Structures are given as C-alpha cells and as structure tokens.
Amino acid sequence: MNQTIIKNATIVNEGKIVVSDVLIVNERIEKIQTTISVPNLANVRVIEADGKYLIPGVIDDQVHFRDPGLTHKGDLFTESKAAVIGGVTSFMDMPNTLPNTLTCELLEEKYELASYKSLANFSFFMGITQHNLEEALRIDTSKVCGITDDGLYFNAENGILANHPEFLEKLFQNSNCLIALHSENEPLIHSNFSSYYEQYGASIPFEFHPKIRSQEACVSSTKTVLEIAKKWNTRLHFFHISTLEEALLFDNSLPIHQKKITAEACVHHLWFSDQDYARLGGLIKWNPAIKTQEDKEGLLQSLLTDHLDLIATDHAPHTYSEKSGNYSETLSGGPLVQHSLLAMLTLYKNKKISLEKVVEKMCHAPAIAYRIQERGFIREGYFADLVLLDLEQSTHVTPEQLAYKCQWSPFLGENFKAKILKTFVNGNLVFDEGKVNLIYNGKRLTFNPLN
Hints:
28% of the residues lie in helices and 21% in strands. By secondary structure, the chain is of the alpha/beta class.
C-alpha cells in the first residue's frame, strides 16, 4: 500500500482556504482532516507542508503536444514532463497531428501512445471537418472529451468551421457531445492580410498581427456561432477568447454546471499585449492574436465576473527556427504549459486575481465544464492530483530549466513570484523539488454523461 500524509497544508479548494492534513492511499485522497495520524508511520511518506499551499492539479483543456507526426516540435513525453513540472496534472490534446485525428481508429492510436509516454493524465479531441461528420459523432463520450476543429484549418481547404454556418447547423443539430471551436472570420483575415502584404510584402511588422487577425474578425465570427448554438441548445465551448468585446457576449448569470455554452481565456492573452510585439516579435505570434492592453485587462476581469469560465494555454510548441522568420514564414503558437500556473500565481501576487479564483478557473472549472470524473477538486475519494506551492519563493525562467523539446519560451528571463514544489498525479509524486519521477504514467480521463 502506497501512503502519503501531507501535514499542515494550506489548502485552496472550492472557494475556501483552510489548514489541514491530507492522507493519500494509493491513487486517491483517503482523508482530509485537521490532524491525521497513522499507526505505522514507517510505511508512510510524510510531507511537512507548514506555510505551503496545496491545490488540485491544473487541468489544461487545450494543448498541442504534437504526437504523432510532428515530434520534432514536441511529443507526449517531453510536453507532459513540462506539464507536471508546471503543476498541470491533466490535459486535453488537439487533433492537428499527422495524420489529423479524423477517425476513431486514429484517435485510439493516440490514446495508446499516451498510455506509455505521458506523465500526466490525458484525453484527446476527435477532429471535425466538413467531411467526417458521421465518424466524429461516433465517439464514446464517456472516454473522449469532445470534438473540435482547432488547428485543422492550417492544412484544410475548407478552413475554420465558424465560417461555414450551414455545416454548423447540421453539426449542432445532430451532436450529443461537447463541441469546442476556434472562432475567427477567415475571409476578413485574408482581406486584412492582403492589404498589409501589398504594403510590406512577406516582412509585415509583427505589431500588425492583431490588425490582421483583428477584433472584428473575432467578434463577428463568435456572434454567428453563438446564434446557431443557442438555436440548437448545443453544448459548445469556445477556445481562446482574445477580446473584451467577445468575452462580454457570454452569459454570466448561471453557474458553470448549468451553462450550455462556455468559453475560456488563455494565459498568453492574459499576460502579453500588443505592446510586447516590439520586444518579442514572432515569439508571441498566436492565433487568435494577442491584442490590446484593454483586451488583456478585460479578459482577466471577464474571468472574475464569470463571463469567461476557465483558463487554458493553447500550448503549441514550434522549433525556434520556425518562430524566427519574417511574418509570413513564422508559425503561430508557442510553449506555455510549464509556466501557466506560475504566471497566474504571479497575477495573484500582483493583486490582479484571488488565489481561490485561480484554482477555480484552472482546476475546478475545467473539470465541471468537461464533466471529468473524480478530478479537479481536493475531495475524499477523488484521485490525488495535487500541487504543493511555495508562494514566498520565486522561479526565474532560464533555458536550462525548460523541459520542452523546442527548448525556448516566451517567458525566458521572467521572474515568477511563486515556486512549484511537488506535483502528484494519481497519488504518485511525479515532480519533487526539481526532480521528475519517470516511472509513473498518467491515466485516460473519463467523463460523466452530458445533461
């Protein structure tokens, strides 16, 4: 029997902060109590956590870990290693691998890969295009997080599904699963790009990226998709909302477990603004684009008011050379999963958001939105996915500490105002004071039925 007692931890969970002991037995939380004693301590790992904070493991619902087919950028081992170092204990991965995940057989092959490569718990989205509707809707919703078009438009002639309302009508009418979409107006983006290309050629200054992938391109598309989803009462999730105007389109009158439509903000949109393009250029080129300071502040405020429901990363590693060309050559996306929690804890230390809200949006809300079974909370009987934090220490981001295969980060040189001490996945101590335990693999996430 594998037993661990975490003593005198300051637990942040379900809107409260309390000091308590936590007993882990094998994979699960056995007991949460002010004082826990075990008769035979010789067989128990005891962790003294006085003054340290214990939170549920972060659940990241949007990552691109690149396995299979794009493993020169990252793979399920390297990126899950970065995840657990960063306190992320579960992730949901996108279908724009090679081959694209457009059949149930390919989907199961990814699960098989993860079963022996991933250090964190995992789920994979089925890809949806205009050509595989029946296949996509075959997924077992108890074992698959949902279906999405995210990333598939990069090499698909028909592009972002948000620009095809006739297909969305058919999809939303027939779906009985969670659908997650990228929402931008491609015709408007192409028109904007052509205007800037005429002026600058391929070397468009990166500061114009949010003018090309503009606020209007985001807002117009999101309004269209929202209208269709409300018509069909679809369980719809919007990835990476990037503008304040969009965020305010979402209803904040219901608790998240009653919402049919949910939406997220990503860490890069909460941390950077268009003022950072001059310094970082293509390293912060994402789709949707990082936009204005007003949008950055507005997205954070929208999380506080529950217009936006959860925080993700859209972790999408590329090699440094793929991020170093001119505007037309530089690929969109970047690695974030190792530092997403640290970034949000720094915003907490800067008095921008409460600690309870960070936990709600990064741990509880993803579990609720996706109906994940027995994770996302510190509760007796739940899987022991836990992170121990020191909020008095700092973390300086250096090249040597990066676990990403791509070996760069837009956060290089940043001094975050917190330190991740330990990460438990299914009761196993997979990250401990700078050391990663490679003998344990994560588990496939499972899901409760849609209401």
